[in-house]
Amino acid sequence: MSPKKKIDKKLPRRKSKPKNTNFVNKYFSIIVSVVAAFLLGVLVGVYFYIDSKDLEIKVPQNKELQKTLQESLTYEEKTQAINIEYDKSNKVDTSFQQTKKEQTPFHYEEPDYGKVDEIIEQEKTIVEKIVPKVKDKVTQIFASKKDEDHKPRLAIIIDDVTTQTQIRKIKNIGYPVNVSLLPPTKRHPNSAKIASEVEQHMIHLPLQASSFKFEEEDTLHVGDSYERIEAKVASLREIYPKAQYINNHTGSKFTANYDAMEKLFRALKKHDYYFIDSRTTAKSVAKELAKKYDLKMYSRNIFLDNNKQKKYIQNQLRKAIKKAKKQGLAIAIGHPYSITIETLKDSLHLLEGLELIYVEQL
Q1: Per-residue CA distances from 222 to 53, 164, 254, 264 (Å)
Q2: Among 21, 72, 145, 306, which one is most buried in terms of CB atoms within 10 A?
Q3: pTM here?
Q4: Which residues fall within 8 angstroms of residue 361, CB to CB, at 6 or more apart?
């Protein structure tokens, strides 16, 4: 047999890529990568460059703002400190000049006397919003009391009285005005003797203030023992045998102190005194302790002469009249300044329809 003839079966030839194509593809990808890396680097560089510029701008602004705020705060604190010092010195000094002209240099009240009314009004507004039903009930009670008495009643008290001249001027006002006498001291030794000249009179007892430069001699303090307070009240009973009511002179610190007021009310109860709270502080605990000791007491509604101008005093009197008509009773307190007495004397026409009373009628 003849050998089989080898048959070469060749596969069809693949078309080979040109060599130059592989070279282009290889280096093209390298070039793209380099360009991409370069662009990424540029972008990152630009980003950090811009961000650093922003930081350079922001940091000084923050420092400047911080400095401004710090300076503003410092200025505010300094201003507040100056105002406090001004209130403590200038207001008192003004009172001193006024009272000096009237030859009564011991008649001083606390620097923040006038602010108490604002606080009380704010508290009243809050209460009226929260518990309107209670307010209506209270109004009904006062209204029924007013119907019983037919006329709204107003008690005007003049504090700090120490001289016969003051009493004479008060008597000439033309209608009932209560006289509250400061206890006798070396500076006004006759304030108990002249009590005999007014049948209805009160005692204006000095109590410790929160901040006060011109404290009365023998003022009662929150740290005083019961024996000391009781002895003081007992001495008042001896020199003012006809007096029924005591109200506080200054006393923003004392009347807000529960322990001190408890001692005082024990003594008042023992020596048959009633109490009128002058409300030199909105934090007074007098009402709470009056209930505890079953002691009759009332609270002042209006201060007449925080500002010693006729228009202001008359407007305050109108407020007191409005309260009296609404509640059936109101208590207003003033001082023996010439302008106060003159204004009251000229305001008789405003009091039509009211019953002006002495505190003994409460």
Answers
A1: 65, 32, 5, 10
A2: 306
A3: 0.65
A4: 153, 155
| Residues recorded for the chain | 362
Q: What is the pLDDT of residues 92-125, one digit of tens each?
A: 434 334 444 444 444 456 766 667 777 767 766 6
217-245 average pLDDT score = 97
User: Are 124 and 327 a contacting pair, CB within 8 Å?
Assistant: no
Q: Which residue has the tokens 């009670």?
A: 141
pLDDT single digits (tens) 169-182:
999 999 999 999 99
- Residue ranges of alpha helices (H) inside 150-186 are 164-171
- Other C-beta atoms closer than 10 Å to the C-beta of 167 total 20
* Tokens 């009314």, residue located: 117
* Helices (H), ranges, the chain: 19-101, 115-130, 132-149, 164-171, 226-239, 258-270, 286-292, 310-327, 338-345
pLDDT beyond 50 at 334: yes
Distances (CA, A) of 344 to 181, 269, 271, 351: 19, 34, 33, 10
In the CATH hierarchy, which top-level class contains the domain 104-361?
alpha beta
Residues in CB range of 118: below 8 A, 6 or more apart = none
> Phi and psi of 153, rounded to 5°?
-110, 145
Query: What Rg value do the Cα atoms of the chain yield, rounded?
Result: 42
Cα distances (Å, whole numbers) of residue 153 to 148, 202, 230, 276:
12, 18, 33, 16
Given a contact cutoff of 8 angstroms between Cβ atoms, the answer to whether 320 and 301 are in contact is yes
pLDDT > 90? residue 227: yes
Calpha distance 71→200 (Å, rounded): 59
Confirm if 157 and 331 have CB atoms less than 8 A apart.
Answer: yes
Looking up tokens 């008495």 gives 149
